Amino acid sequence: MNITQRNFFRLLRAGAFGNEEGIEPMSAWKWRQVFAWGQKLGVAPLLYDGVERCSSQFFMQLPAELDERLRLECQETEQHYAAESADVAELLSLLGQWQMRPVLLDPWGTGCLYDRPSHHHAGQVNIFFPFDTQGQKADEWAKSHGEDARAVNSHIMRYGWKGLGVEHRHRMFVLSNKLNNMTLQDIIKQEWLDGGTSHVVIDGQRIETVGPTLYMLMSLLSIVKTTLNEGPALWQMVDMGMLLRRQGDRVDFVKLQDWIEQLHFTRMAQLVGQVLTALLGFSGDEVPFTKVEEGGGKVESLADDLIAAGRGNTSKYLRYAPGESISNVVASLTHSLGNVEE
Questions:
Q1: What is the pTM of this model?
Q2: Which of 33, 142, 226, 341 is most buried, judged by most C-beta within 10 A?
């Protein structure tokens, strides 16, 4: 990696996970490049947290105007989060009052684990309804109280609410490969019956979410979906790392590894492990759900693709989940042909 990339990942590790590392001297142009990447990838506030953590270092010298602009942008982000978190809490409270049992999923659920949740990549509010009758009731509520409510398919409803993008899910996650999806739905159903739930606090309100072991699996599946369609997303990898750091002691890694093998995502798990250990500062022991592969060349390529943010070569990642990638392509072609016929 070049010096700009090295400092980018050092600041990210420092801001997200508290790993203070030596910063190399850079020109003003290169510092601007680092934060241009951060803004594009949705991790600029975490990079600025890294700047604050490494502020005593001699070479930690941002251009004054960049430092001031980033400080003001972080303040705006925090104010925006405060307003949004209040709305998210209110929405979950309203749905709960009507006995719909809303279960909060990524990315809002993971954001609560960060030292500064307001510096986390938030985005859409994804809500799972464990039972069909509750999900149908929630969809009717969305049609009456939401904006532009529309069914994406048989198990997803999207709408707007107070400026938030909201998605109701009748299935926690759906895979394109039918056999793998049947296995996944059985895993989710059994884990739910076994009481695999947890809670987070948003704006002072206790909100139900998914238990740590199943949450880890859902995080990996989200990475699989994004990587196959757009290339690996850095903020998803950071979220996985945060789950490991903050909830790893509550995860049944034997069960998680068994699920990964059942769904045939072992190679994708190895890819995630490579990012966590080579770029985000984790040790192999901290990623017990997979065997981490070594390889300097692969690390360089991963760093490039993570910073490229979806503009990398996604075809090279198809081999990490061949069953899902083939089914994904077939589903996309079928959808496209259907639109042509219409």
A1: 0.90
A2: 142
